[in-house]
């Protein structure tokens, strides 16, 4: 599952003199020998997790990409080949045969081996399966009723064949792209310490918390992917080295891959200008400088993605949760978001407005007319009227509830419409967007204050919570303009917007929406997901925002042989120096 690109911003990272810190250990020169490549990680998106099982505090796309490079997925369903599909070259499985009734699937494994020479078998897949079954509540990919709940049995036929049975019939494409693709065969013979899956889970997660130990811990040496970890710094720099024992279909073309963290986009741009980054990025505000980069031997190419961008509400916040639960209040907020101007001015035309839960940057059959047509166009006068019609009046420049009977259940008299967002630090574009939104809210009479922190901190400080918990003081969170939610191929909302979904940060819950989400995973018709699209475009579980491209890539001429994955993962084994 990709959170927000958590390029935060999820898939993904800090300021000032950090360029030195971020790039410590590098030579500061480009990879002219073609034996290595310097890849710039998104600003303030420090990799911090090696275990190929995500938890809520580690939803960073960089983590996912690195883990998939070390331990290949059972089924790599991604956009790395230029279209979203099953990339069999980067998968352990070679076939997935669904039963005629779509209630089970028989998987065939390739003739593959771990880096220590042991064969990859059905037992390694079952090891993952048992871990997830026993510890599903701690798995970030868990959504009640979905995997592993809807997988009723795992039956190994032999070392290279097994069958997973489901609780009912499912759309094979959805099952393949959104559930089976989450499985990663794990080295059971090395990682299974004692056999009890709960104890093993604790052991593995505790080991994964020790970032400084990644380089030497024997646990992380037995791999199946094209690269191994050579070093992994707590400051975020990761060095990968080609796995000489790799016997899969994506042979690494570059021996050494340096993944470089940056605390600000400006620091990364300075590294580009100095030539010490081979594959980096610029912000939308820098497009007028495109010529200066192409003149230095770079190619500038937008990396578009299959994603949505939004700010989650915390519906359980003790101060503002009751206000957020009022649909009219959310409508007033959405009417105050000038998406067209944000996309055109702040994001320099590199974004498209997004009005609901289905990506709108790419054409699809999933988008409803309701979402496409924008049910809440920008109008601060409309927003103000919604509030005054429901018992609010402006006092000292801020809307205040003066008629609680109209304000809604739980909204006390004297409540001020004041919201605070915890937003990604280190990005000028993100800062500009938050400032523009703040100005628009002021015209509506909503006070909007902005607090910033590195993306990983935003993720850890804005978790799912109950109103009585001290961690539940957050009201809104924003993972940055590079922090969009990147979907699997089928843009279902089970993780984001289904009740108790694993990445439903603000605890949004609507039984009718739950039914629509469930229907979208079983029906072969697109009507179900279009109904879901329409419902959430109207009900506003979050603040919808423009969807920017994942990044505007700046690549050294001669680097090629790959497509930029629209699911926002990077695939080092596909990178090649062609000249």
Automatic annotation (TrEMBL):
PROSITE patterns recorded? PROKAR_LIPOPROTEIN
Keyword field contains Signal = yes
Q: Does the keyword DNA-binding apply?
A: no
Name where it's found. Cell envelope
Where the record annotates domain Solute-binding protein family, the positions are 92-496
- Major subcellular location class: other
What SUPFAM superfamilies does this protein's entry cite? Periplasmic binding protein-like II
- What does the UniProt keyword field contain? Signal, Transport
Q: Which family does it belong to?
A: Belongs to the bacterial solute-binding protein 5 family.
- Report the protein name in the record: Peptide ABC transporter substrate-binding protein
């Amino acid at each position: 599952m990709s959170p927000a690109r958590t390029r935060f911003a999820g898939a993904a990272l800090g300021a000032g003199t950090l360029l030195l810190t971020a790039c410590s250990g590098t030579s500061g020169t480009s990879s002219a020998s073609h034996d290595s490549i310097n890849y710039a990680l998104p600003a303030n998106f420090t990799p911090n997790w090696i275990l190929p099982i995500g938890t809520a505090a580690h939803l960073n796309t960089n983590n996912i990409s690195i883990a998939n490079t070390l331990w290949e997925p059972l089924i790599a369903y991604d956009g790395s080949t230029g279209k979203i599909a099953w990339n069999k070259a980067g998968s352990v499985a070679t076939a997935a045969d669904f039963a005629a009734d779509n209630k089970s699937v028989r998987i065939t494994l390739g003739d593959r081996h771990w880096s220590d020479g042991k064969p990859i078998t059905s037992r390694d897949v079952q090891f993952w399966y048992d871990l997830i079954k026993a510890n599903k509540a701690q798995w970030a990919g868990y959504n009640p009723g979905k995997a592993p709940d809807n997988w009723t049995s795992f039956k190994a036929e032999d070392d290279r064949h097994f069958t997973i049975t489901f609780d009912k019939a499912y759309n094979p494409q959805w099952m393949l792209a959104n559930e089976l693709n989450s499985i990663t065969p794990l080295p059971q013979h090395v990682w299974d310490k004692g056999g009890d899956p709960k104890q093993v889970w604790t052991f593995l997660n505790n080991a994964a918390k020790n970032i400084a130990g990644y380089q030497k811990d024997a646990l992380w040496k037995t791999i199946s992917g094209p690269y191994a970890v050579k070093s992994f710094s707590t400051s975020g720099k990761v060095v990968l080295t080609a796995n000489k024992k790799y016997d899969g279909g994506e042979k690494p073309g570059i021996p050494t891959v340096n993944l470089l963290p940056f605390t600000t986009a400006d620091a990364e741009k300075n590294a580009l200008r100095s030539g010490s980054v081979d594959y980096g990025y610029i912000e939308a505000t820098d497009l007028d400088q495109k010529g200066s980069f192409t003149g230095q031997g770079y190619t500038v190419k937008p990396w578009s993605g299959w994603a949505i961008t939004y700010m989650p509400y915390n519906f359980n916040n003790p101060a503002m949760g009751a206000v957020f639960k009022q649909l009219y209040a959310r409508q007033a907020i959405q009417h105050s978001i000038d998406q067209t101007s944000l996309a055109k001015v702040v994001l320099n035309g590199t974004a498209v407005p997004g009005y609901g839960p289905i990506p709108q940057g790419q054409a699809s059959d999933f988008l409803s007319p309701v979402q496409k047509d924008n049910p809440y166009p920008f109008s601060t006068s409309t927003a103000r009227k919604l509030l005054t019609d429901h018992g609010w009046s402006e006092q000292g420049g801020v809307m205040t509830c003066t008629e609680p009977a109209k304000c809604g259940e739980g909204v006390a008299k004297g409540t001020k419409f004041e919201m605070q967002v915890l937003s990604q630090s280190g990005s000028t574009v993100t800062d500009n967007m938050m400032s523009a939104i703040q100005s628009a809210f002021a015209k509506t009479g909503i006070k909007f204050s902005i607090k910033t922190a590195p993306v990983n901190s935003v993720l850890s400080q804005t978790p799912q919570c109950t109103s009585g918990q001290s961690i539940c003081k957050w009201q809104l969170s924003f993972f940055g303009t590079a922090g969009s939610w990147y979907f699997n191929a089928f843009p279902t909302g089970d993780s984001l917007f289904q009740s108790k979904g694993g990445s439903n940060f603000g605890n949004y819950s609507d039984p009718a929406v739950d039914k629509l989400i469930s229907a979208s995973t079983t029906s072969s018709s697109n009507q179900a997901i279009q109904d879901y699209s329409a419902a959430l475009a109207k009900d506003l579980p979050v603040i919808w925002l423009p969807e920017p491209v994942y990044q505007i890539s700046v690549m050294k001429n001669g680097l090629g042989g790959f497509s930029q994955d629209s699911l926002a993962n990077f695939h080092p084994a596909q990178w090649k120096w062609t000249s």
